[in-house]
Amino acid sequence: MSALRLRPLARLAGLGVSVCLLAACGRIIPEGRGPGPLPTLPRPPMTQTPVPPTPPPPSVTAFSLGVHAGPDLAALGLSNAAAGPALVSFRESCPKLVVRKDSSGLTRPGDWRDVCATAAGWPVADAAGFFQTLFETATVGDGATYVTGYYEPEIAGGRTRQAASDVPVYGMPADLVHAKPGDAPVKPNGQTPFGRYDETGHFAPYYERADIDRGILAGKGLEIGWASDPVEFFFLQIQGSGRLRAPDGTVMRIGYAGDNGQNYTGVGIIMRQRGLLGTGPGQYASSMQGIMQYLRDHPDDGRALMEQNKSWVFFRELTGDGPIGALGVPVRPNVSLAADPLFVPLGAPVFLSIDKTLAGAGLANGLWVAQDTGGAIKGPNRFDSFWGAGPDARTIAGGMLARGSATILLPKGTLARLGARPDAP
Question: What residue numbers bound the domain in which 377 lies?
């Protein structure tokens, strides 16, 4: 959850149907570079289907919900190999941490300055020592976490329209603007909503997905590329970034520029409510692949279903080594999380301990860094894990539905300043 993003790079940020489609994820984010290849492990059978928790009212923050001391860092069993990538990503977060207001109410920019100064020269070979020396752990609320996954897809398409590539990829429209003060209620993040001013000068919501599907933006010079498959492009929008591969092999990387400000709706949730997903006769698998198959098998109903998700994502062409998350730094596979900034300081390390009986067992365990946001990644201890690009990333992200516990790492002394209790609530 980058430049003009309503919810920075992860506004829709995540997906996996299991992930965002079934879990109502919405985030938009990109991919990144990681310390090594993704694990090609079979997903364990899911013994139960976790249901996403209901987000709290937007006025609630980590501080108002309650924070207490977490487990001793030594008890987390950090290894240098596992903590090394997190240290590298934490360093990249530091320029933002030391100046950015923390919406969670847990930290102040000054809390991070000494930690970040030390991080700059700390050897990655002793990454575990860095975190154990300079951090303490905190638990927000009961610490119970719900984790999904997202990835960077690659789909057929390119910069120019062709017979086989006629699905428009739009850049940001000039008439998509923030409401002027007084024209619309201020959101919890302190900003007015995005929308447009009509011919009479009144502020109104921006066009919905159905309007854009029907061509209301066509012919305005907004097309920065074209995709071949509307279903694949729909999923790419959920992820928030991706790659368009042309027939000649050239690749165009696109990333989140903004969105229409409309609410995100997970089509997997609707399909589940209608009895379309499951293991019974005529039902489709409760997975990203199952949902995509249904949308292709029933093109008219599928289009109507996709249009239930009124949110539309606008893109820009990306250059550089990876997509940029909501914090304004690259997101990295196996390291970056999308989180709700009302409950986690963006840039802070987060340790996840996942129930091994659920999908994604073990893969999401360990130390991550919160560097992105997501339209449906709302509430305490709600995370979307980034897995990079390629078939392994797609498989892992698409099957990631995990529960467990989350521990936030804060600079030593933060809990004493907050008056946090050492015992669990």
Answer: 1-425
